[in-house]
């Protein structure tokens, strides 16, 4: 009986090893150079119409910067803030405007604000492709405050996502 | 001395006091306006930074080599930076450091590396002894950084990382970026 059991155990381990040896690596999508540039152009177009001097950051799905741009007359904090907004939107997979309200003191999610690198200020928007977040855009320094920054980042994120859809359609 | 002469003398005296007093006041005004003015300096713009990055990327593209580029302004902060597909996340910071080093020492980082080498000597064979500069924060002893000079004034720098040809090719691409706005900086 124990011999059968041992054989079965050995077979089980062998099977498990076999599976782990052939398992595919995890595949993820992340924002690329072209998408980041498309996002930046859309943000700059918004900023020009707005008559402001926006700073923009695009982060990948790990929250690391892919593109950084500091406006000509930006305040010293603008680019850093844009980067943190993008990081936050990517992390919580929602606009930082929505997350700001969701994580208000007293709310169940208020503790999320204690995480390093997050900022509860509007202006960060995730780049969504087929329900998946592949990165995010952060904007700081438009005329419309947090709402204006959000509109600018949204235009940028849309431009990046549209590029992905076009690529997928052509494939 | 008659009354007429006395009046004349008095008039000259009053006029003299007026002239001295008013020119002193004028001088005070001039000093005030000139010293209270804030500093006006040239700095690389977003538009120029984009052209520089484009020039650097296009040059390396000839080798089918995607690169990470950073353009810093006159104080060495990022004006524009973009990471190549597949590059490690640290490359943006590496490119920034190359650009920073070139900007702050107003020379190609490859030249600065030679100048700050422990055994570096000048034309007369005298030791240069600038190795200490390498201890400064944000500097990096790697080729691939070029300054952007406008009328002898360093208004920025460009740094390139990750080309197929290594640091030497990075410098070629950084130079191409520098050249992309050279005609604007005459």
Description of the molecule:
The complex is a heterodimer of chains A (171) and B (186). Chain A has helices at 2-22, 33-50, 78-92, 96-102, 145-170; strands at 55-60, 65-69, 124-129, 132-140. Chain A is built from 5 helices and 4 strands; from the N terminus they run ααββααββα. In chain A, helix 2 (33-50) packs antiparallel against helix 5 (145-170). Chain A has a single domain (33-170), classed as Haem-degrading domain (Beta-Lactamase), CATH 3.30.450.150. Chain A has 171 residues and is of the alpha+beta class. In chain A, strands 2-1-4-3 form a 4-stranded antiparallel beta sheet. Chain B has helices spanning 3-36, 46-61, 91-105, 109-115, 166-180; strands at residues 68-72, 78-82, 145-150, 153-161. Chain B has 2 domains: 1-37; 46-185, 2-Layer Sandwich (Beta-Lactamase), CATH 3.30.450.150. Chain B is built from 5 helices and 4 strands. In chain B, helix 2 packs across helix 5. Chain B starts with a helix and ends in a 6-residue tail after the last helix. In chain B, strand 1 and strand 2 (78-82) form a beta hairpin. By secondary structure, chain B is an alpha+beta fold. The longest helix of chain B is centred in the N-terminal third of the chain and has 34 residues, at 3-36. The interface between A and B is medium-sized, with 17 and 17 residues. Strand 2 of chain A pairs antiparallel with strand 2 of chain B.
């Amino acid at each position: 009986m124990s011999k059968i059991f041992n054989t079965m155990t050995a077979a089980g381990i062998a099977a498990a090893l076999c599976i782990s040896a052939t398992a595919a690596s995890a595949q993820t999508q992340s924002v690329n150079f072209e998408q980041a540039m498309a996002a930046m152009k859309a943000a700059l177009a918004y900023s020009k119409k707005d008559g402001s001097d926006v700073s923009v950051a695009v982060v990948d799905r790990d929250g690391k910067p892919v593109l950084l741009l500091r406006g000509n007359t930006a305040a010293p904090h603008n680019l850093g803030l844009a980067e943190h907004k993008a990081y936050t939107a990517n992390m919580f997979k929602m606009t930082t405007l929505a997350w700001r309200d969701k994580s208000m003191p007293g709310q169940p999610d208020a503790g999320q604000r204690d995480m390093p690198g997050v900022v509860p200020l509007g202006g960060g928007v995730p780049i969504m492709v087929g329900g998946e977040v592949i990165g995010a855009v952060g904007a700081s320094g438009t005329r419309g405050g947090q709402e204006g920054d959000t509109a600018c980042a949204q235009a940028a994120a849309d431009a990046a996502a549209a590029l992905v859809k076009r690529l997928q359609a052509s494939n | 001395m008659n009354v007429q002469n006395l009046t004349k003398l008095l008039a000259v005296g009053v006029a003299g006091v007026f002239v001295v007093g008013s020119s002193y006041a004028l001088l005070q005004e001039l000093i005030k306006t000139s010293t209270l003015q804030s500093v006006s300096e040239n700095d690389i713009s977003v538009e120029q930074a984009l052209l520089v990055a484009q020039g650097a990327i296009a040059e390396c593209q000839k080798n089918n080599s995607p690169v990470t580029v950073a353009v810093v302004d006159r104080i060495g902060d990022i004006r524009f930076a973009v990471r190549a597909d597949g590059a490690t996340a640290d490359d943006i910071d590496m490119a920034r450091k190359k650009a920073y080093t070139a900007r702050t020492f107003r020379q190609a980082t490859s030249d600065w590396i030679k100048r700050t080498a422990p055994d570096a000597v000048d034309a007369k064979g005298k030791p240069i002894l600038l190795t200490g500069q390498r201890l400064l924060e944000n500097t990096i002893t790697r080729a691939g950084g070029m300054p952007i000079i406008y009328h002898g004034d360093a208004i920025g720098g460009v740094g390139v990382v990750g080309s197929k040809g290594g640091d030497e090719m990075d410098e070629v691409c950084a130079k191409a970026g520098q050249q992309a706005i050279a005609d604007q900086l005459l």
